[in-house]
């Protein structure tokens, strides 16, 4: 058995490859937590009395964060699907 | 001249020595094998230095005592203070650590070298060390021939240790046989005169062998068979400690300013410690006796007592210097000044790229990243001045409307001159350096490096486009036609806002903030593109601007679009995520073209 094949077998046996996906899941979850918090803050500010220009800017930020959260959830979903 | 004479003289003297004494030949061969072992050991540890060492270093050098601990542990494990010095210079050059931490590592490495004396005195002289050397050499050499980098590294480490042990064995054997024919202990000189003579001998021996480690092992081998007296061995150890700095200073002559400063610190530390040791030699010897007695070391066990002396002498030096490290660093920064970063023609030079950082792929990468940030700072300066805005105002909390009101200069800034002075040379050197660094990098590192090179290209393109934009920007922001003036003011405002946001992205640690600002910039890029959103058509249709103005506006809005697009792309590569070792999460969450279109359609 070659060294490369041996390392591959050991990696598979010890499920070391899953570490990468687990790490990715962890960073997506952390980022989603922060983005959700930001979204809540923007939403709260949007409910208050603001100037038209500021409100427009906040609405735009709200849209962007919402899309980013949607993208993050899609990544998580893919990662969980991969595990199944 | 001296260099030319020195080597042949040493070779001739050695040849003469071999001719008259076979035992001397055995000792010299022992030293040669020992030094070769050190080289192999260094080579082996280099294979493992790409990653783990750097991570440990970054986490363990934020405080002086931690740097000293790191220096000690690294030297004790690798048994080579010179490798630790080379790596420290490399880390310094890449901006990974500061000079204070570097000095801390060197102080720790000094104590780390004492472990060699302990190994030799406690283990090497008591057992048949050659018996361990043989299997190590066999396994080591087999592994060296393997293709895998890690196996090769282990092979070099094993072979290195094998050669070290074999060298010690030959030195020991040589001195034992030597004792039967010549008694060099009769040359022992006592008193202060002896102290100074043997300090000189230790110093010279270390300069010739380029290793204090080898000198101390040699001293221990000679001491174990009674060929030198204990007092003279102590003096030789002090001499070896000074000698090692001479080799470090010579080595630093070809190194960068960081290497020179570090060698300066090493020199001052070792020479002053040696001076203090000479002054209080009797007190130190008394302390060695007390410590040896405490640990149950027999009074006539001079080899172990020498190891105690070596440790005590170096620990004493470190304790003595610790409170003054900051002062020493200030002194070195004042005395050894870096060359002005501009040459005679005023062309700015690179800050982080030098050959010392090429030692490790990770330090090369960090140096390239830092240099790209340097190029980014220069580019931002030129773009801001090209827009006739003060850079400090952009980065302040001043409302953008007010930022635009305050001009940088009454005259048009010569962007070509700025480009030649602050961009061209640095960019060329980054590309050249990246090509050299790439040869030692892994495929994943090369991929990251490719992105950094693209970021550099983006910056250069942004500066070049600013030059094209500048002429009409000056002309039309002063126009009497309020429509064209408004459009150019809007271009200026958009770019100023982008520069401000990218600066926040570059300095913020909040990942979600970085992500939001860059996504916002991407949305604005499309939203305010006057060709796409129909503004230009409206102006032309309503005859609010002349044909000449329309052509200029069309071209210039394209330049502004390209500048923004290049800056966003650069920021995404350089600042948006923890680029090194990140898992691509940020790129995936970031808005796609479709997402941007959807947001714009909603708006």
Short description:
Chain A is mainly alpha-helical and 84 residues long.
Q: What would your notes on this structure say?
A:
Chain A is built from 3 helices and no strands. By secondary structure, chain A is mainly α. Chain A has one domain. Chain A is rod-shaped. In chain A, 18% of the residues are buried. With 603 residues, chain B is mostly helical. Chain B has 2 domains: 21-335, no CATH class; 355-602, Methane Monooxygenase Hydroxylase, Chain G, domain 1 (Up-down Bundle), CATH 1.20.58. Helix content of chain B is 78%, strand content 0%. Chain B is built from 26 helices and no strands. Chain B has helices spanning 2-20, 22-60, 64-78, 81-93, 99-112, 114-124, 130-144, 149-181, 191-209, 212-224, 230-252, 257-279, 281-294, 302-321, 325-335, 361-386, 391-394, 400-405, 415-438, 443-477, 482-507, 511-527, 535-541, 547-574, 585-589, 593-602. Chain B is elongated. The mean pLDDT of chain B is 85. The chains are: A mainly alpha (84), B mainly alpha (603). Chains A and B meet through α2 and α3 of A and α22, α25 and α26 of B.
Topology overview:
The complex is a heterodimer of chains A (84) and B (603).
Chain A: H1 3-13, H2 18-47, H3 52-83
Helix pairs in contact in A: 2-3
Chain B: H1 2-20, H2 22-60, H3 64-78, H4 81-93, H5 99-112, H6 114-124, H7 130-144, H8 149-181, H9 191-209, H10 212-224, H11 230-252, H12 257-279, H13 281-294, H14 302-321, H15 325-335, H16 361-386, H17 391-394, H18 400-405, H19 415-438, H20 443-477, H21 482-507, H22 511-527, H23 535-541, H24 547-574, H25 585-589, H26 593-602
């Amino acid at each position: 058995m070659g060294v490369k094949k041996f390392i591959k077998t050991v990696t598979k046996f010890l499920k070391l490859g899953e570490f990468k996906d687990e790490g990715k899941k962890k960073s997506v979850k952390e980022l989603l937590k922060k983005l959700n918090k930001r979204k809540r803050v923007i939403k709260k500010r949007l409910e208050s009395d603001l100037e038209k220009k500021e409100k427009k800017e906040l609405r735009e930020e709200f849209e962007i964060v919402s899309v980013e959260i949607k993208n993050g959830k899609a990544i998580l979903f893919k990662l969980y699907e991969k595990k199944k | 001249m001296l260099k030319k004479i020195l080597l042949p003289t040493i070779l001739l003297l050695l040849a003469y020595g071999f001719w008259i004494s076979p035992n001397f030949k055995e000792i010299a061969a022992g030293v040669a094998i020992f030094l070769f072992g050190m080289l192999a050991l260094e080579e082996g540890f280099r294979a493992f230095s790409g990653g783990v060492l750097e991570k440990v270093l970054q986490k363990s050098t934020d405080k002086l005592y931690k740097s000293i601990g790191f220096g000690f542990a690294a030297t004790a494990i690798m048994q080579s203070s010179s490798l630790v010095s080379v790596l420290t210079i490399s880390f310094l050059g890449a901006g990974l650590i500061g000079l204070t931490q570097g000095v801390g590592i060197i102080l720790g490495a000094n104590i780390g070298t004492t472990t060699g004396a302990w190994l030799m005195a406690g283990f090497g002289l008591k057992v048949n060390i050659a018996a361990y050397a043989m299997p190590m050499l066999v396994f080591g050499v087999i592994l060296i021939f393997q293709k895998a980098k890690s196996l090769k590294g282990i092979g070099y480490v094993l072979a290195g240790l094998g050669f070290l042990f074999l060298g010690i064995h030959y030195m020991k054997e040589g001195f034992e046989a030597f004792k039967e024919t010549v008694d060099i202990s009769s040359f022992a000189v006592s008193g202060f005169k002896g102290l100074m003579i043997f300090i000189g001998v230790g110093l010279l021996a270390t300069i010739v062998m380029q290793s204090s480690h080898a000198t101390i092992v040699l001293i221990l081998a000679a001491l174990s068979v009674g060929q030198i007296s204990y007092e003279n061995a102590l003096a030789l150890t002090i001499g070896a400690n000074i000698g090692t700095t001479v080799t470090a200073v010579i080595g630093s002559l070809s190194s960068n300013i960081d290497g020179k400063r570090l060698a300066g610190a090493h020199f001052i530390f070792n020479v002053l410690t040696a001076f203090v040791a000479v002054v209080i030699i009797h007190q130190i010897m008394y302390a060695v006796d007390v410590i040896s007695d405490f640990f149950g070391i027999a009074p006539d066990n001079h080899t172990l007592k020498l190891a105690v002396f070596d440790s005590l002498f170096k620990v004493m030096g470190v304790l003595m210097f610790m409170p003054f490290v900051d002062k020493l660093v200030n002194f070195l920064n004042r005395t050894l000044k870096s060359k002005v970063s501009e040459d005679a023609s005023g062309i700015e030079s690179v800050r982080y790229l030098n050959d010392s950082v090429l030692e490790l792929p990770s330090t090369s990468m960090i140096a390239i990243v830092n240099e790209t940030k340097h190029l980014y700072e220069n580019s931002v300066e030129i773009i801001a001045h090209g827009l006739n805005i003060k850079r400090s105002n952009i980065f302040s909390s001043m409302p953008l409307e007010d930022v635009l009101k305050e001009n940088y200069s009454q005259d048009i800034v010569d962007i070509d001159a700025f480009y030649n002075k602050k961009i061209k040379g640095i960019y060329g050197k980054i590309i050249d350096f990246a090509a050299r660094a790439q040869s030692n990098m892994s495929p994943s590192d090369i991929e990251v490096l490719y992105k950094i090179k693209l970021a550099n290209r983006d910056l250069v393109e942004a500066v070049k486009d600013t030059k094209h934009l500048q002429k009409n920007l000056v002309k039309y922001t002063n126009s009497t036609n309020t429509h064209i003036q408004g459009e150019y003011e809007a271009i200026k405002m958009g770019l100023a806002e982008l520069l401000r946001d990218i600066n926040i992205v570059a300095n913020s640690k909040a990942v979600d903030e970085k992500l939001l600002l860059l996504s916002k910039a991407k949305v604005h890029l499309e939203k305010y593109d006057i060709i796409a959103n129909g503004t230009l058509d409206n102006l032309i249709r309503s005859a609010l601007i002349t044909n000449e103005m329309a052509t200029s506006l069309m071209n210039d809005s394209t330049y502004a679009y390209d500048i923004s697009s290049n800056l966003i792309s650069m920021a995404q590569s350089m600042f948006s995520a923890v680029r090194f070792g990140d898992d691509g999460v940020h790129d995936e969450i970031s808005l796609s073209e479709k997402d941007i279109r959807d947001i714009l359609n909603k708006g």
